[in-house]
Specification:
- This protein is mainly beta.
- The chain has a single domain, classed as Jelly Rolls (Sandwich).
- It is built from one helix and twelve strands, in the order βββββββββββαβ.
- The protein has a seven-stranded antiparallel β-sheet with strand order 1-10-3-4-5-6-12. A five-stranded antiparallel β-sheet has the order 9-8-7-2-11.
- Strand 8 (102-107) and strand 9 form a beta hairpin.
- The radius of gyration is 18 Å and the shape is globular.
- The N and C termini lie far apart (43 Å).
C-alpha cells in the first residue's frame, strides 16, 4: 500500500459454510493508520461478513486484532485482542470456522472467539448468503489507530503485508447456478464434520485463557456505546 492505492485479492469461489485459514505476516515497524484484513463477505446490499482486521500501530506498540460479525448488514459486534506473539516477525495461521451453529475465530489453532447462532432468540446470524474470502491492505487512519488520532506516516510507504497458504479444502463451494443453501447444509462424508464442529473442553479452556489475558475490548461490556441497553445476545447466558 502506498498513498495512491491499497491492495487486495478475493477467492475465485463463493462458499456457503466452511473452515478456512490463511497465514499472514503483518507490516513491521510503524504501521499506524493501516488495516490488514482477512475476511469473508457476501455481495450486494445488507451484506454478511466475518472479519479479522489487524489495526496498525506505532513502532513498539502491539497490533490490535479486531473481530466482527455482520448479518444482513448489521454489525457492531466487535471483540478486540492483543496477540501473544509478534505478528510481524513471522507467519501465523488465522482461521475461520463457519457452520450453521457457530462461527469460531482461531489463531494458530487456539480459539479466541465463538459466535453462536441465536436466531431462535431473534439475533441475526449469517447463513443464507454465500461469501467469498478476501484479504486487503488499506489506509484507515480516520479510525484505525487510537480512534484516528494517529495518522499514517507516508514516509514509511510502501507498506507490505504478506499472505500464503490459503486453505479452504473443508468448505462447501457454492455453484454459480445454485439458488438454495440446501446442498451446503448437510453432512455427506466424514470429512464434513466441520459442519457440526464445536468447542471441546480443552478448546473452551484455551478460549477463556485468551479472553481473560488478551481481550482489550468487548462490545458486550460497552455501556457508553449502547446507552439504551446492550445488544440482546449480550444478555443470553
Amino acid at each position: 500500500m502506498d498513498k495512491v492505492s491499497g491492495s487486495g485479492f478475493e477467492s475465485k469461489n463463493e462458499y456457503m459454510f466452511g473452515k478456512m485459514d490463511m497465514q499472514l505476516k503483518l507490516i513491521p515497524g510503524n504501521s499506524a493508520g493501516t488495516v490488514t484484513a482477512f475476511y469473508l463477505s457476501s455481495k450486494g446490499p445488507a451484506s454478511d461478513e466475518i472479519d479479522f482486521e489487524f489495526l496498525g500501530n506505532l513502532s513498539g506498540d502491539p497490533y490490535i486484532l479486531n473481530t466482527n460479525v455482520l448479518s444482513q448488514g448489521k454489525g457492531d459486534r466487535e471483540q478486540q485482542f492483543f496477540l501473544w506473539f509478534d505478528p510481524t516477525a513471522d507467519f501465523h495461521t488465522y482461521s475461520i470456522l463457519w457452520n450453521r451453529q457457530r462461527i469460531l475465530f482461531s489463531v494458530d489453532g487456539t480459539p479466541i472467539r465463538e459466535v453462536e447462532n441465536m436466531e431462535s432468540r431473534e439475533v441475526p446470524f449469517p447463513k443464507n448468503r454465500p461469501m467469498r474470502v478476501y484479504s486487503t491492505l488499506w489506509n484507515a487512519d480516520d479510525w484505525a489507530t487510537m480512534g484516528g488520532l494517529i495518522k499514517t506516516n507516508w514516509s514509511n510507504a510502501p507498506f507490505t503485508a504478506s499472505c500464503r497458504n490459503f486453505n479452504a479444502d473443508m468448505a462447501c463451494v457454492w455453484p454459480s447456478n445454485l439458488t438454495s443453501a440446501s446442498s451446503c447444509s448437510f453432512i455427506s462424508t466424514a470429512g464434513d464434520q466441520w459442519m457440526i464442529e464445536e468447542l471441546h473442553t480443552s478448546d473452551q479452556e484455551n478460549l477463556k485463557w485468551v479472553q481473560k489475558n488478551y481481550m482489550v475490548y468487548d462490545y458486550c461490556t460497552d455501556l457508553k456505546r449502547f446507552p439504551q441497553g446492550l445488544p440482546l445476545e449480550c444478555n443470553i447466558a
